[in-house]
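Hi W., the magnesium ion complex you wanted:
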Amino acid sequence: MKIIAIYSSKGGVGKTATAVNLAYGCARSGRKTLLCDMDPQGAAGYYYRIRPKESFNRKQFLKGDLEPFIRGTDYENLDLLPTHFSFRHLDIALDERGGAGNELKRIFACIEDEYEVLILDCPPNMTLLSEKIIMAADLVVTPVIPTTLSILSFAQLIKLTDKLEVNRKKLVAFFSMVDRRKNMHSDTIAKFGKKKMFLASEIPYLADVEKMGLYRQPVAVSVPSSAAATAYAQLWLEVWRRGALL
Amino acid sequence: MKETWSTSTLSEQIDLAVLLAGLSKHYALLEDDALVETLCYLDTFDWRLYDKGLLCRRQGRSYVLTDFSGEYLLQADGPTSDQPLFRDFEGAMNEKLAEVIGVRALLPLVEIVRRRQSFQIVNHDQKRVLSGLLEQDHLMQEGGSPIPLGGSLRVEGVRGYSKIMAKVTAILQRQGFEAGYSAERGLRSALAAMGRKPLDYCSQFSIRLDPTETIVQAAQKIFLQLLAGMERNIPGMIEDIDSEFLHDFRVALRRTRSLLGSLKKTVSGAEVESLQQELQKIGLVTGPVRDLDVYLLEESGYHAMLPEGLQEGLAVFFKGLRRQRVKEFRRLQKALQAKTFHQFLLRWRRYVEDLETSLLPSDLTTGHETCKKVAVKAIRKRLRAILKDGALIGPQSPDADLHSVRIQAKKLRYLLEFYRSLFPEPAMDSLVKSLKKLQDNLGSFNDLSVQQQMLARYQNGLADGEPKKAVLVAAALGGLITHLHEEQVNVRQKFDLAFAQFTTAENRKLFHSLV
Ligand SMILES: Nc1ncnc2c1ncn2[C@@H]1O[C@H](COP(=O)(O)OP(=O)(O)OP(=O)(O)O)[C@@H](O)[C@H]1O
Ligand SMILES: [Mg+2]
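Structure:
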């Protein structure tokens, strides 16, 4: 099972939009996929119209008792593990358990045989949980809005991976919510886009992505032949290829 | 992981909304547009798929192989031709069919019009929490209106939403739907609507006799069944659907002749003599095509026997055989369609039907012996002959001696098949089994020598053809003959073992207990 984390310490950069649409693309390519919503806000679950079961909370998650709480989406090959309000203290709980290293890997071990790909929609912060995610993931995909500040926080992420002694190669970034009419966006892309860590695909700022909250479906379903659907399809292909190279 | 529940439905019209009216307001039923499709079930003439628990259906070019419960095993595109063979398919379907149907063609059994209505149940978030499929079948018949056949209702749960699944299945069960759907039942009801049922033809001969029946009564039953078998194969032979029609016909014919021959002492008269001759003539008329089929069916085996350099000559040889088969088949077809052929079958039927009344006064005593008594006598006689002749075969014995043991064994085999039901089943089964092994050895020996003779004859005839090609073909045939000869020597060496295994002390005891 390949673990792909969609991560950024910054909020509102398009992580969830990316996780939701990449998970769909992955499942469409025939791979049994689990989208795991790690963010207690539960946006990913919301987009797939899935609420957590009442009996689910952080405890079961930490125990690795995930199976009974996984729910099927409306799409073939794609299941979702909803988040829970109690996930907001997940990092404290992880800290208390004091487990060094791959705590998350152990938790996800129980679903390893069933899913080919696990996609994590991560909350926006830089905590112990983030570190565990970065260590457990095979690929960390980071949406970067082409602004100076976003680049700065991406630089921070690189520093963190070095500190954790994690292979830098599993870090990939792409430009998110791109508006080419803005000079800042074009300039930033021109300056950093050539770097190896950046994928060639980018996700433009598009109303169809914004409207996902209305349709509660991946863009490939709600607006199948839109620019948004095409952009995410392309992004998925490139992410998967990167992952395969590792 | 996914929970499914299915049931058979018999009523003609099912309204899902009415059926699921008991669901709470939190759920809504969404029905998709119904699709109507035509599909056709296929099987070989002798039900080889059904016999192995398989069903094949075709929709346009798409073929699906399922088990009796309807579970998909294989799906593949195939020909739209009415009677496909395994080699008309590719990949896994080709392999599976080759294994199960062998040389037989798939024939359409029934054509069904199926109305498929898929539906889902969604919760208050408009999230799908259950999906389902309602299918209703109709039998199409030429000229008439479609006959409703019932169908199936299947529901499939969504992972993590088991409550609604439990609710829906409870509602269905409360309304009398029983769990369990079988595609086989669907096929059976369609066949029944046409007055057919599965396995209504089997090339294996089997008949129930009553030990107290007279031999004439028993013979009459056997003859009639063999005749029915021959008649059922005639259309397929004329159409040349696959090679087994002719083969099964000829086997039934041989059995008929063998039984008639064994009754010489029971029923006599000039009529028998002339009927025997006519039956033999049919054997001769149908022989050449069958002989050619045997080679053509083995074509790839022959190719495998020869090195690359001789392949071209062999290909030319087979091209010739195919051409010859076209010619021979035309002759056979004409013979089968001829009035005289049908007149003879009629005459044979009348003779068999009147068998009892046509007994001559001199036949009366023997004709009224019980079939069991006659069977015991006949089997004993054949067995003795085989045991005696077989024991005399040594390394120096001429081929003709083996040939004669083979004929004896074959006659014994027919007797065992005719009278099987008169003896205890387990003993009979093991006797037939060990006899079959002996026959396999003798049969291979004979086939190999017939093949060598045929190839040699063909080789001799080559001189008349185009010289360059003739050289190629002659070389290939020479290679084949060498190979076949080696194999024959091999088979011959194994005769002793095969015979010893047939005559073990245990088997001898078995023979004694039977006859
Ligand atoms: N490419 C885009 N074009 C237009 N709107 C977008 C795009 N990507 C995301 N959005 C919108 O921006 C908002 C934030 O996006 P999203 O929730 O995906 O970001 P996030 O990084 O997951 O946020 P958070 O950190 O809060 O989890 C959402 O309203 C979303 O619809
Ligand atoms: Mg988010």
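The beta strands of chain A are 2-6, 33-37, 71-72, 78-81, 117-121, 139-144, 171-178, 198-204.

W.
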